[in-house]
Design brief:
This protein is about 15% helix and about 30% strand. With about 325 residues, it is α+β, with helices and mostly antiparallel strands. The strands form 4 sheets. The chain has a 6-stranded antiparallel barrel with strand order 3-4-13-12-9-14. A 4-stranded antiparallel beta sheet has the order 7-6-5-8, with no helix packed on it. Strands 1-2 form a two-stranded antiparallel ribbon. The longest helix is centred in the N-terminal third of the chain and has 17 residues, at about 30-45. The chain is globular, with a radius of gyration of 29 Å.
Length: about 325
């Protein structure tokens, strides 16, 4: 929607004055006048596509959904729970009771259910839409502000979906607790890797490069030949070459949760996670390490009871064998 801050008559006079000399493109003076007209027009017009006024949006926070609205079912090996949204905070070292150092990545969890898809997929799976981590209204585009306005909540930094079985559906407005997972559980974490820009084959693919001497000139870090002769007469698709490195979605599978800080909603996960500090992650149960029927997860999620004391930390149980014994 374009609104003119000045009267249309003034804009018309500017157009007539500018295009009177721009009828002959070969004249440099006419081209200059035409560009000057566009510069004047850009200063007299205001482009207002969407309103960013918080009073117009009437943003409110979702209230906490009680446990009475959650349909509790028994967990089965075919059940599939929803995932959560996390933010990578950094890496650190922790020591367990065996005095063994553990390198962990700290992830903050903030997830609220925003929508449930009405139709199931062709495989009979339901779709849950979740959002996490607040963002400022001024840095949010109009269409996204409108979507969050319909949901009745402030804009979030991340909005994504997870496929779940119909028995694992959560009500809209429910905030998922960090105890959705438990220490010792294996999870899959998806993040966007660090962007490295354009890189050569030695950095991007680990090529050895060419010789430093013995007749090699100016091609020490080049990839060498990329194809064959007349047959096949082409370069095969997927050939490893220089190009853009990083800034792609990657999933780290079967990472184990070492510790959970319930009060601060933090997960301490063993190993490295793709992405830079401050990056948004998608965390869900590991597909290649299913749960044991003897130790099922909280299903469909963890629900705190009234009057329950919040524990300080939940730590993964230790192995019975001392790691320092020969």
């Amino acid at each position: 929607v374009i609104s003119l801050s000045r009267s249309p008559m003034r804009v018309g006079r500017v157009l007539r004055a500018g295009f009177r000399r721009s009828s002959f493109p070969s004249q440099s003076r006419g081209r200059y006048r035409c560009n000057k007209v566009y510069s004047i027009l850009s200063s007299t017009m205001n482009y207002r596509a969407f309103s960013t006024n918080t009073e117009d949006l009437k943003i409110v926070e979702l209230g906490e959904t009680t446990a009475d609205k959650i349909d509790v079912h028994e967990w089965s090996p075919l059940s599939q729970r929803t995932g959560v949204i996390g933010m990578k905070l950094g890496m650190m070292q922790l020591w367990d009771d065996w005095n063994e150092v553990r390198v962990v990545t700290v992830v903050k969890v903030d997830t609220v259910v925003t929508k449930i898809r009405e139709k199931l997929t062709t495989k009979g799976m339901a779709q849950i839409q979740v959002a996490g981590f607040d963002r400022s209204v001024s840095s949010t585009s109009g269409p996204i502000l409108g979507e969050f306005k319909k949901m009745g909540m402030s804009p979030k930094r991340k909005l994504t979906e997870f496929q779940v079985t119909p028995d694992a559906i959560l009500p809209v407005g429910f905030k998922i607790d960090v105890r959705h997972f438990f220490p010792g559980q294996f999870v899959d974490i998806q993040g966007k890797t660090k962007g490295k820009g354009t890189a050569g084959v030695m950095k991007r693919w680990g090529f050895a490069g060419q010789a430093a001497t013995h007749g090699v000139s100016k091609t020490h870090r080049h990839l060498g030949s990329t194809g064959q002769c007349q047959g096949p007469g082409k370069v095969f698709k997927g050939k490893k070459m220089p190009g853009r490195m990083g800034n792609k979605k990657r999933t780290a599978e079967c990472l184990q949760i070492f510790k959970i800080d319930v009060e601060k909603s933090l997960l301490f996960i063993l190993g490295a996670i793709p992405g830079a500090n401050g990056g948004i992650l998608k965390i869900r149960d590991a597909r290649k390490r299913p749960f044991s029927p003897e130790n099922p997860p909280p299903f469909p999620t963890f629900v705190a009871t009234e009057g329950e004391e919040i524990p300080d930390d939940l730590v993964m149980p230790l192995s019975e064998k001392d790691p320092f014994d020969d």
